């Protein structure tokens, strides 16, 4: 095996758990191969990381304060999940103000390469100006990236009436979408459109694209996207398994509760750190879980902890746990044998964690590329079933107090996934058995991919070689 001890690689994650956790996982993976990794992070995120991670050999965490005040943000806002939707434009300004300290750091460290979140395009421009190779980390999978690229280039939704579905052209598989399932940045007039357009422009500086995925999870899409982009693709996932032991320590109370539950009897419910729902929808979820009779762990934002939620918690008693805030150790929770299903928003990190744990998904996409990920999960690889959401909550417009999925549907689909009822509509006991079989097989493929000699294992070595010789 080649020695990479002379390599110094700088990582700069986007400040949101679904982005910084997998990129820190990648830094840990890179360090485990002998390279030196520096992770640029703000003090708030640094304080949330487990002490054992901070002691990882080969990793240095470089703290840069987040310029909240300079951008007109209230004190204490340092991550995207803390930002009120009305202040998203100021958050984008704060991100751009990180360019100067990042430039100073690059000049000081002169790293072999930079691996940065694609949502921080100034890192690409700065690295290119200093002659340092820049690798993009999009934070999502190749299927969603391929769908997004096709829609951006071909605009198929503009040729069909809004009421009709349309086929996404040029993909390895036939994929149909509706207008309500589109990533909102595709549509004109959205407040986040300009922000994501800048990120897309940074593609011209990319030496390569680092993806938290593996070949069997997205069959045919590595070749397709690499051909479309003309850039080298490095499939190095799933990367979440590298932190599971630390996460068990972080969630000792939840793990103790899970030990008392039968195998595969608990559904884990979490919609990520950025999804915000109106109160009416939150209460419908709680009542649906209550009606289902299934044991559950339900993670909600602290701001969503209304008195009605507390009443649901009191009624279900020991059958359910409601976590207010964020579970930093989600990957470890999913791998517990008592977990039998995952009600998820289809964020890519959540999808890969479920696959690595072999847990079938009940999919409920909300925004962004999550409807694309749902297509992959349910239609292409058959490792989940849909809850039936036909539209999402547009990021920044969640205050519209509507219910997209009612308690009866939630209860029915939870019972179907957990095999407590055959339910009605699409899906059956036989379908769920097929999903369980498929996700178990995919878990084994993931294990082989990251094992020594596997496709993801070898892709890490290839990435390091490109960092050395680019």
UniProtKB/TrEMBL annotation:
Q: Which SUPFAM superfamilies match?
A: UDP-Glycosyltransferase/glycogen phosphorylase
Does this entry carry the keyword Transferase? yes
InterPro entries noted in UniProt? UDP_glucos_trans (IPR002213)
Q: Where are the transmembrane segments?
A: none
**GO molecular function, one example?**
UDP-glucosyltransferase activity
State whether keyword Membrane applies: no
Spell out the protein name for this chain.
Answer: UDP-glycosyltransferase 73C5
Mind listing the UniProt keywords for this protein, alphabetically? Transferase
Q: Which Gene3D superfamilies match?
A: Glycogen Phosphorylase B
Family, per entry = Belongs to the UDP-glycosyltransferase family.
């Amino acid at each position: 095996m080649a020695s990479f001890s002379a390599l110094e690689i700088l990582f700069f994650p986007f400040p949101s758990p679904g982005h910084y956790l997998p990129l820190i996982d990648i830094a840990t993976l890179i360090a485990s191969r002998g390279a030196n990794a520096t992770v640029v992070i703000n003090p708030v995120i640094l304080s949330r990381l487990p002490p054992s991670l901070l002691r990882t050999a080969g990793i240095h965490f470089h703290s840069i304060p987040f310029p909240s005040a300079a951008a007109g943000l209230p004190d204490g806002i340092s991550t995207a999940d803390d930002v009120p939707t009305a202040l998203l434009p100021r958050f984008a300004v704060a991100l751009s103000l990180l360019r100067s300290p990042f430039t100073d750091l690059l000049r000081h460290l002169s790293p072999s390469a930079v691996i940065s979140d694609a949502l921080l395009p100034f890192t690409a421009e700065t690295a290119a100006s200093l002659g340092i190779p820049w690798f993009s980390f999009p934070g999502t999978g190749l299927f969603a990236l391929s769908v997004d690229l096709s829609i951006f280039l071909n605009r198929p939704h503009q040729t069909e009436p809004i009421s009709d579905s349309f086929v996404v052209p040029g993909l390895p598989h036939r994929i149909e979408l509706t207008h309500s399932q589109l990533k909102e940045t595709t549509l004109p007039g959205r407040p986040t459109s300009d922000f994501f357009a800048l990120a897309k422009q940074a593609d011209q500086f990319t030496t390569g694209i680092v993806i938290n995925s593996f070949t069997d999870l997205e069959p045919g899409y590595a070749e397709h996207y690499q051909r479309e982009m003309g850039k080298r693709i490095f499939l190095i996932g799933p990367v979440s398994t590298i932190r599971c032991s630390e996460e068990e320590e972080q969630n000792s109370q939840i793990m103790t509760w899970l030990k008392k539950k039968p195998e595969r009897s608990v559904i884990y419910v979490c919609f990520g750190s950025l999804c915000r729902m109106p109160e009416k929808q939150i209460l419908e979820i709680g009542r649906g879980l209550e009606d289902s009779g299934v044991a559950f762990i339900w993670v909600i934002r602290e701001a969503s902890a209304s008195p009605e939620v507390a009443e649901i918690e009191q009624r279900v008693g020991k059958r359910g746990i409601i976590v207010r805030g964020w579970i930093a150790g989600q990957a470890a929770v999913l791998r517990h044998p008592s977990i039998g299903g995952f009600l998820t928003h289809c964020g890519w990190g959540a999808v890969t964690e479920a696959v690595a744990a072999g847990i079938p998904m009940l999919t409920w996409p909300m925004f962004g590329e999550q409807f694309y990920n749902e297509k992959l999960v349910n239609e292409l690889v058959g490792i989940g079933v849909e809850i039936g959401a036909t539209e999402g909550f547009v990021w920044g417009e969640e205050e519209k107090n509507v219910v997209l999925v009612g308690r009866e549907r939630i209860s029915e689909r939870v019972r179907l996934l957990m095999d407590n009822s055959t339910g009605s509509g699409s899906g059956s006991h036989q379908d769920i058995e097929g999903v369980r079989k498929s996700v178990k097989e995919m878990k084994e493929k993931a294990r082989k991919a990251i094992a020594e000699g596997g496709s993801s294992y070898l892709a890490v070595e290839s990435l390091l070689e490109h960092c050395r010789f680019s």
